[in-house]
Design a protein that fits this description.
This protein is of the alpha+beta class. It has one domain (13-158): 3-Layer(aba) Sandwich (Aminopeptidase). The protein is built from 5 helices and 7 strands; from the N terminus they run βαααβββαβαββ. The chain has helices at residues 23-35, 47-53, 58-61, 100-111, 125-133, and strands at residues 13-17, 62-69, 72-80, 86-91, 116-121, 137-144, 153-158. The strands form 2 sheets. The protein has a 4-stranded antiparallel sheet with strand order 1-2-3-4, sandwiched between helices. It has a 3-stranded antiparallel sheet with strand order 5-7-6, with helices on one face. Strand 2 and strand 3 (72-80) form a beta hairpin. The radius of gyration is 15 Å and the shape is globular.
Length: 163
């Protein structure tokens, strides 16, 4: 989740809860990520299916935080209301390495001080380093090889506590 050509942090950054109007931008971020040339992540869900997952009813099931950069949605985090499982955290490529990922995780930590879990694709070494730096630890028995993408995932946990 780092970018060697990262811009410096800006006062124009803002984390807030998503509204229904933000969801198309969130769908575009994940679609763009899946379209990016990664040698390890095949696309198994097409664009319209992803867009369909970001209907207004998503906000009934999940807490979604968005990161704004200069008034535009630059990333998002989606987690269950009850279980606190983080289903997704994605940033636009130009928004990586400027503190927005940390700010999104901090919002999740504040909303869920008792802790949360998430999965990360094992080959995504940048994300894995980021999560470890943010005090998440791998749950060894949580490794999963049988994923729809055919790419192993690791289960990561933040046990909660004071920030």
């Amino acid at each position: 989740m780092t970018n060697s050509a990262a811009r410096p942090a800006s006062a124009k950054h803002h984390i807030r809860r998503a509204t229904a109007a933000d969801l198309p931008a969130c769908a575009a971020i994940i679609n763009d990520y899946m379209d990016a040339a990664t040698s390890w992540l095949p696309r198994v869900i097409d664009h319209p299916a992803i867009e369909g997952m970001f209907g207004p009813d998503l906000l009934d099931r999940r807490t979604v935080f968005v990161a704004e950069d200069g008034g535009e949605i630059a990333g998002y985090l989606s987690m269950d209301h009850e279980a606190g499982f983080i289903h997704a955290i994605y940033l636009r490529p130009d928004a990586r390495g400027i503190g927005l990922g940390k700010a999104l995780l901090d919002a999740a930590k504040q909303a869920r001080p008792q802790g949360f879990e998430l999965t990360v694709f094992e080959p995504n070494s940048d994300a894995l380093r980021f999560y470890m730096r943010e005090d998440l630890v791998e749950v060894p028995q949580g490794r999963k090889e049988d994923t729809p993408e055919g790419v192993p995932t690791l289960l990561m946990r933040w046990s909660g506590g004071a920030q």
